[in-house]
Amino acid sequence: MNRRLRLVLGVGAALVVGVALWEGYKAVGDPDGTVLFGARVLPRTDDAAMPHVWTILSRFGEPELAGGDPIWLVVLQACLFTLRSVAIGFVAGGLIGLLLAVLMQRLRVVERGLLPYVILSQTVPLIALAPVIAGWGGRLSIGTYPWQPWMSVTVIAMYLAFFPVAVGMLRGLQSPAPIAEELMRSYAAGWWQTLVKLRLPASTPYLFPALRLAAAAAVVGAVVGEISTGTRGGVGRLVIEYSREATTDPAKVFTAMIGAAALGLAVAGVVGLSEFLVGQRRVRA
Amino acid sequence: MSAVMLEGVSKVFNAGRADEVTALTGVDLTVAGGEFVSLIGPSGCGKSTLLRLVGDLIQPSAGTVTVAGKPARTARVDQEYGIAFQQAGLFDWRTVQRNVELPLELRGSSRKERAERAREMLELVGLVEFAGHYPAQLSGGMQQRVAIARALAVHPPLLLMDEPFGALDEMTRERLQDELLRICASTGTSTIFVTHSIPEAVYLSDRVVVMSARPGRITDVVPIDLGARGETTRQSPGFFTGITKVRRALRGDAVPAEAPA
After folding, report:
1. Which of A104, A210, B17, B49 has a 20 to 30 Å separation from B225 between CA atoms?
2. CA distance B102 to chain A (A)
3. For B31-59, how does the pLDDT look when each residue is reduced to its tens digit (9 = 90+)?
């Protein structure tokens, strides 16, 4: 109980500090930004570049366009739209990462052959890759169900999410001490039993950090994927659309950015919660 | 039927390569049912290798290993032995009870049977009240007792131990030695016990197998006859005689002729 209270207080304090920094800098900073050696190192502080926190918050309550839905609803719907890509991409990417890790652990030759490609896959710029994936998607269909643009976004989220899981789980699956493996061998345990009873449980300390990275990567992948494939309906698209109105309605783009950030926090929260639930079953001395 | 029989066993690691090592050569050894045999020798004499050959964790380069009348591989698959190492090697995500149940789980015993057997084993090592604890909550000596309980869980006729008390303090060590002897006597288990400690080997064993390195081989077998071990055994003249004999054998001095048991 005490710890929970401290957590809530901590989160509250962090929010207060964030707002204080924003408003404090806005109050004392140069309206034209802080320039050092000809480069602007801190942003402009006028209302167009840094709207007041309360302006942004009140913008959530106002309609998106004259007579339309309030912006909080629009942003929420966009986040839920993106969440579908994030969730499917995260789960599929996690499973693919797990499968690759198991394969690489099982066969040394696969590890040697595959790992360089796994690493290479993450060095390809997403901006270059996204249109290609969207282009391929346009020629596909799942049975009679035509390929939807959000599916391309999901594929991009998955593409980013599988990597931390593959690398982290490979470490985790290889983590048991040699005597633990000898012990399993002495029990005549097969490969599958050793995987289920020893390697997978032993890898949980590696799994959750990897999942947290994968969750963040899936959100980034989905948002950037929406932007670079021009997919409508998601919060990534909203960021682009609203930023075009930055001169006339500067607070608007911040609502979409807060929405994207909240989406990331929500997904990270789900991972944290599942880690907490697993940890509950394991008492630490 | 003998519990373990090794005939002309040798083991070469990295055969045919520049870093080829002859770990064991020409080993003949028979362990009778219910007998307690220690392996002692300098580092690199192949005593752990010998233990792993008996357990079929590695395969001999030559010779045959027979455990409980079967080839070593069949014996392993039939779980004819339990094994314990210097590190307890408990799975820290499992409770004490679930650790002891592990070998039973892998052979497909029912939940009820597993729980009964685990309780019986924990009673044997005096840790029943810790069944629900996790390994990290136990001392090193308690963890090692859990490891012994786990090794005995399937009631194997043979127990293989690789310096199981090596990492423990002297007092815990002596207590666990007495406990191990009591357990082996009450269950009739044959034991092969690898150790670095001469007093430990002498105190525990019916026979001490003395080995030497480069290449690893058996140089001597010292029979020990101390009768039933008790409070006074560690101070008895017979105990010290045994220690002297083993020490001489380790140094390679001539041991007074005495037929191995």
Report:
1. B49
2. 9
3. 998 899 999 988 888 889 999 999 999 99
CA A246 to chain centre: 25
A189 touches chain B (CB under 8 A): yes
Cβ atoms of B215 and B242 within 8 Å: the answer is no
Please give the ipTM for the structure prediction: 0.84
CA distance B52 to chain A (A): 9
DSSP secondary structure, B137-186, as one string: GS-HHHHHHHHHHHHHTT--SEEEEESTTTTS-HHHHHHHHHHHHHHHHH
What pTM value is reported for the model? 0.80
Question: Any CB–CB contact under 8 A between B261 and chain A?
Answer: no
List the single residue in B with minimal CA-CA distance to A190. Answer: B106
For residue B70 the two structure tokens come to 């079967």
Assigned token pair, B138: 């136990």
E strand residue ranges, A168-280: none
What are the C-alpha distances in Å from B104 to residues A162, A188, B98, B118, B249? 36, 11, 10, 9, 41
The answer to whether the CB of A263 falls within 8 A of the CB of A83 is: yes
Q: Within an 8 Å CB–CB cutoff, is residue B55 touching chain A?
A: yes
Give the residue-averaged pLDDT of B235-261: 76
- Taking 60 as the threshold, does the pLDDT of residue B257 lie above it? no
C-alpha distance from A285 to closest chain B C-alpha (Å): 5
In this predicted structure, which of B112-121, B204-213, B226-235 has the lowest mean pLDDT? B226-235
Token pair 């959530």 in the structure block, residue: A60
Q: Which of B132, B134, B183, B181 is nearest to B156 (CA)?
A: B183
Packed helices A204-229 and A126-137: angle between N→C axes, nearest 10 degrees: 70
